[in-house]
## 1
Amino acid sequence: MIPQRFQPILFAAILSGLMSFIVAGIATLRSVGMDPALITLWTQNWLFSWAVACPTAYVIAPFARRLSLRMTAGPE
């Protein structure tokens, strides 16, 4: 089992992986249509996207967390 202290890193990796997978799939499908090479192209695009999205998530997460805390009300 992974220690709890690594949860934020794991969360960012999983979230960025899933989000980039979905977005890359939609973008690839819109770009090439139902091409026989769709799965190969999707995978290639996803791996590149994830390579950008994962480090970006690590950098942006603290800012997004602070912004979301400012935009929401505290306990009442």
## 2
Amino acid sequence: MESQKTILFVEDENDLVDVYHLIFDNHGYRFLSTKDINDAMMLCETDNVNLVLLDILLPGQGGEIERLGFVFLERLKQNPKTKNIPVIVFTNLNAIEDKRKGLGLGAQDYLAKSEKSPQEVLARVEELIGGS
């Protein structure tokens, strides 16, 4: 029997986390979430994460919103233990420079939150890692 696949959602909007938690749970995935890039890195190193759904704008140490998703993505792809984990950037930053940067750092896809339904995001995840 195939083991349950794990999705890590790095996101600070609780309502969005709740929606995606429900969607992925209902499709047989194990769902983890955090808004802290250090926690996310630790989970990727220790928790058999199959795919990361990554927001770019996340709260920093002082609570201010920063582009920490790029920092996380760079660290993830430089770490030999985590470099092969697929990442879908899922953000409201839709400028071409941001998209280029995310894909250049190694993300498999770059999706704008406002343009994708949860079902479309689920379909893209399943394309990348197969069903649960």
## 3
Amino acid sequence: MEKRNIKQEEKDLIIFLLSLKNLNHADFPINQEVSDYEGAVMRSIGLGKEDSIYAGDIIQVKYIDSDEIPVIITLTKDHEGNVLDLDFWKEDFSTLIKYPKPNDLIVV
């Protein structure tokens, strides 16, 4: 899978999500290179190594995109305790229009 540099808005969102669980982002190093999932349609990214194994969700929040379609955002971890994925699941599987800012999120 092709890698690219993480965008600042992605990094900011991950740090904010960790803070919602009272986790220090220094304890969850964020890779500077990420992989886009599904051709970047929903903006989900992979932060883990090729051999990383999913070990659970860190947090899940909701977001309402600018077209009023709900989006579930999940931050996951791998078997070593590192951030694995930042997943976006838009209810109708359409393209994410506006990337969420921390104050746009709804904690579930």
